[in-house]
């Protein structure tokens, strides 16, 4: 009986790397030398390709992983080549997009936090990434905001306000990482990437992610019936679960 054709699909922040930090070279080597010979490797993240390359130690990530899906799979790399991309601008139209962004900026102008920095709305191919504290914050400020947000639910409160203001705009929201949340068209969560692999004949698709609770940006794909989900707490836990899966 031939061995199963398995795809291991990984979230990045909190799964392969610590949030917004580079992957540990030893862990990277473990994946490439121990795991890659046993399965097909895929990476799906909410970030754009530039950020993924930074955290995965170089643009050659598209060769080290068989599939790389920045922005939840709205951009697709297969075996080192870009094979497609979708655009939120094309999907929504400029008028609706600007109306939404203007309200976001207006709302954020009323939010008082211990610190505020710059880059509150980041436009990506498949989503808007919204950060109440601003993506220009330092690592220390990032960690402080995460603690503050856990106590005061800044991101979740803002999401509820957006849902109330725009009930029919066709967007959904997911909290990911430490300082931001994503707004994207319904169905454009991480399950979007599955349409690019479901016809490849895999016997099993395993997904590893840390934000798997409802509202987290791994929730939909973790619970998708096409996927065997693995909830992890950090890169060390990801390694332990891979060793168990492949009996290493």
From TrEMBL:
Binding residues for alpha-D-mannose 1-phosphate: 20, 124, 135, 142, 180, 182
Top-level EC class as recorded in UniProt: isomerase
Any one Gene Ontology BP term: mannose metabolic process
Primary location: cytoplasm
A single cellular component GO annotation: cytosol
Subcellular location: Cytoplasm
Domain of life: Eukaryota
Reaction(s) the record says it catalyses: alpha-D-mannose 1-phosphate = D-mannose 6-phosphate
Entry cofactors: Mg(2+)
Protein name from the UniProt record: Phosphomannomutase
Provenance organism: Tribolium castaneum
Gene: AUGUSTUS-3.0.2_05557
